[in-house]
Amino acid sequence: MPIGVSHKTGGMMRCCLALLVAWLVACNPLYATQPVGEKPRNLVAEKEAWEGTWVHGEGAITVAVTDAEQGRMQIAWFEKKQAALVPSVYDVELRTFDKSTFASVKDRESGRYVFARVETKDRQIVVYVPKVAAWMRVLRDKQVPNTLKPALPGGRSESEATLGPLSSKDLAFITASERAYLFLADPPTAFIKVTK
Q1: Quick check: 18 and 77 in contact, CB under 8 A?
Q2: What is the torsional sign of CA 137, 102, 5, 29?
Q3: Which 3 state secondary structure label does DSSP give 144?
Q4: C-beta neighbour count of 89 within 10 angstroms
Q5: pLDDT tens digits, residue range 68-109?
Q6: Which of 4, 19, 70, 185 is a plausible cystine mate for 105, CB 3.0–4.6 Å?
Q7: Which residues, in sequence order, are bridge partners of residue 96?
Q8: For the chain, how are helix, strand and coil distributed in percent, rounded to 5?
Q9: Rounded distance, CA 171 to CA 132, Å?
Q10: CA 63, CA 193: separation in Å to the nearest integer?
């Protein structure tokens, strides 16, 4: 699951907003070439808990589970463009490794995915976004398979990174409690469910 750091924001900013708001970290999101995690999160027993409208200080999203067995859902919201409201709809895949759940959204421009760790607590979805600077240290130290190359002009990071496929060992490494610093948690982003 290669991951990279991009200098682009534009449509990515909206995608990041969709993947549970407040996702861009210094305008350099992390990417994966496929959804992050080892297996789909089965939502059959949780479908009702996930579906509905969720609010955050920046706005609201509506969630509809589209394939409960495969952990797939759509999220939607409205944006104001010029004088009109325009709907935005994105597909989200929830995948797990051990006790961790990752939400991944495909960027329509690059075909890659942005991702975060997510937890559900009562009527809340708590989102822990990747902390780019911490990831770059791990990648430079070759603690997970990757390739580094100079960033594109105008980027806010000094290099762009791509991970090789993440094995179970790699996923265990990035989800270990001593590496919680790879995902922002101070404070995490939380969504509160307001409707079914």
Answers
A1: yes
A2: negative
A3: coil
A4: 11
A5: 999 999 999 988 899 999 998 999 999 999 999 999 988 787
A6: 19
A7: 39, 101
A8: 20, 40, 35
A9: 17
A10: 10
